[in-house]
Hints:
Elements: E1 4-8, H1 21-31, E2 36-40, H2 48-51, E3 61-64, E4 67-70, H3 72-82, H4 91-121, H5 128-150, H6 162-176, H7 184-194, H8 197-215
Helix pairs in contact: 1-3, 1-6, 1-8, 4-5, 4-6, 6-7
Amino acid sequence: MSPTITAFEQSPDRGRGLARDMRVRWALEEVGQPYNVRLLSFAAMREPAHLALHPFGQIPTYEEDDLALFESGSIVLHIAQRHGGLLPAGANARARAITWMFAALNTVEPPIVDLQIARIMEGDQPWYEQRLPLVQARLHKRLGELSGCLGHADWLDGAFSAGDLLMVSVLLRAKAAGILSEHPKLAAYVARGEARPAYKRAFDAQLAVFTAASAR
C-alpha cells in the first residue's frame, strides 16, 4: 500500500514550499513512490488521534502498514533507505550523505530558525535591535562555512543525495528570509535543487493544497 503523510490543511507558509511536509513529498517524488496525504487543521493536530502519531502535535507524519514515523529527517532517511536513488551504494559515500542530512537539520537549520523567530516574535522587545545583528552574524558565518564546503561542485558529495535534499530544503528558509543573496554559491545550489523535476512535482502538490484552501 502507498504510505500516507500528514500536511497542513492551511499552511502558514502560504504555499511557498517551506512547510516540513515538503521535504517528505520531495523524497517520495525522487524515488517514484506514490503516496497519500491527509490534511489536518491546527485543531486536529492537537487531538489524541494525531498525538498518537506525533507526540508534539506537528507535521509531517508517515504511516506505512504498521509503521508510523514523525520528524521530517527521520522520514526522509527511512524513504532513502527503503528505496534507491537518495543514498549512494558505497558504504563510505552513504555514511557521508547521512552525515550531511544531520548537518542540514542540526547545524544549518537552527540559526536560520533563530533569525526567523527573532524577526517574527521578538521585534517589540527592547533588546531586539542589539540582538538581531548577532543572530544575523552567526547565520552568515555558518552559511559561509557551508559555501566553502560546497565550493564549485553541484552537490555536497558527488551525486545528488538525501543530504542535498534536506540541505536545500533548509536553505529555502534562508532564501525566503532574503539571506542567500550574500552567498551566491548557495543561491545557485538551491536553484539546482528547485529545478529538479521531483522538487517541482512536490512543490506543485503542496501549492495546490494552499490554493484550494484559499478558494474556500
